[in-house]
Amino acid sequence: MSGKLMPCSPGEISSLFLFEKLSPEQLGRLCGEGRVEKFEPGPVYTEGDPATCFYVMLDGTVVLYRRVGADDVEVSRTSQRGVYAGAMQAYLGDRVPQVYNNSMRVTEPTRFFVLPAESFSAVMREWFPMAAHLLEGLFFGSKNTQRAIGQRERLLALGSLSAGLTHELNNPAAAAVRATATLRERVAKMRHKLAVIASGAYDPEALTRLIEIQERTAELVAKAPVLSPLEASDREDALADWLDDHDIEEGWRIAPTFVQAGLDVDWLEQVAAAVEPDILPGAVGWLNYTVETELLMDEIDDSTNRISHLVDAAKQYSQLDRAPYRVVDVHELLDSTLL
User: Fold this and answer.
1) CA atoms within 13 A on the CB side of 11
2) pTM of the entire structure?
3) Which of 49, 42, 54, 52 is nearest to 4 (CA)?
4) Which of 117, 119, 4, 110 is nearest to 57 (CA)?
5) Which residue of 20, 51, 230, 283 has the fewest C-beta atoms within 10 A of its own C-beta?
6) Residues 13-48: pLDDT tens digits?
């Protein structure tokens, strides 16, 4: 964007802190090769465009932006006289890409002393040769140092994140492996129990009622309430007593599984009412495998969901530095960081 050309006064630019030590001849050369431009509110230059000019503000207000993703992020806003921007690395020549590293706009009518990049590079090398060499060394040294430190910091952060993530993933992964192995065993026993039941002299109506009970049992497992330790203990005792009274072996082992699934004595009474007494033990055993299978599948589901959540949180956390500025839920980000 071009501004309105205005007279350049050596006396005015000598009042800028960048030029206050220059001689009258040097100030005259700057005014001869440069110019004063007045810009109305709007853009002055855009990030990524060829850096053709060095800008020093005489009066007004400037705002600098950087491109982050698809957004322009404001990085500086000032009305301080003498601030500068633009082709600040022109003295490095072709050793670096000569493009604007940010975007600049003005929010009110603003005057700049504008020096072409070629002139800025020439006066730097002619008037301050030692300073130019020092700045070159500082520029490239700083770049290399930042690159090395950045790689080291990323590796350290990645190592810490990987170690923590590996530790956290190990628990749900191990739980899923154990549950899968146990599930395979329970399903095999359920098939065996079903074969035993099917080979008996059971009428189709009894089998149908048993299958209906199995379906309702699976639904109850999915809605199992969370009991306090005391409530769970009392319910286990009641279920174990009922199972013993009905000549069902190892009631003490089966009762905790039923309690975990949210089942109670009323449910057992419904099972007893649906089948004949002689097949009740087999029916309860089969339903016990059903309950164990549902619980194991819930455990696998919980474990794999936890793994997924951990991976998602790690992904979100590791990509924070590459994300654009956007409106977010801070609580969600804190939760993912803590996780």
Assistant:
1) 0
2) 0.47
3) 42
4) 110
5) 230
6) 899 888 888 899 998 998 999 999 999 999 999 998
The whole-number average pLDDT for the span 232-260 is 88
> How far is the CA of 129 from the CAs of 123, 313, 329, in angstroms?
9, 52, 52
In the structure encoding, which two tokens stand for residue 111, read together?
A: 């005057």
The answer to whether 54 and 117 have CB atoms below 8 angstroms apart is yes
333 vs 339: CA distance, rounded Å: 10
Nearest to 44 by CA among 56, 32, 33: 56
Per residue in 65-102, pLDDT (tens digit) is 988 877 788 888 999 999 988 887 777 777 778 889 88
> What is the spatial distance between Cα 111 and Cα 246, in angstroms, rounded to a whole number?
97
- The string of pLDDT tens digits covering residues 103-115 is 999 999 999 999 9
Q: Give Cα 311 to chain centroid, integer Å.
A: 9
Residue 199's identity, in one-letter code, is: S
* pLDDT tens column, 114-135: 999 898 888 888 887 776 667 6
Helix-, strand-, coil-residue percentages of the chain, each rounded to 5: 65, 15, 25
Q: Which two tokens stand for residue 266?
A: 């009323």
DSSP state of 9: -
Please state, in angstroms and rounded to a whole number, the distance separating the CA atoms of residues 287 and 301: 21
d(CA 38, CA 55): 11
Which pLDDT value is given to residue 201?
54
Long-range contacts of 48-52 (CB under 8 A, 24+ apart): 48/99, 48/100, 49/99, 49/100, 50/98, 50/99, 50/100, 51/86, 51/87, 51/89, 51/90, 51/98, 51/99, 51/100, 51/117, 52/87, 52/116, 52/117
Which 3 state secondary structure label does DSSP give 105?
strand
Neighbours of 292 (CB within 10 A): 23
Are 41 and 92 a contacting pair, CB within 8 Å? no
- How many Cβ atoms are within 10 Å of 338's Cβ, its own excluded? 8
Could you say which DSSP state residue 6 is in?
E
d(Cα 111, Cα 177) in Å, to the nearest integer?
70
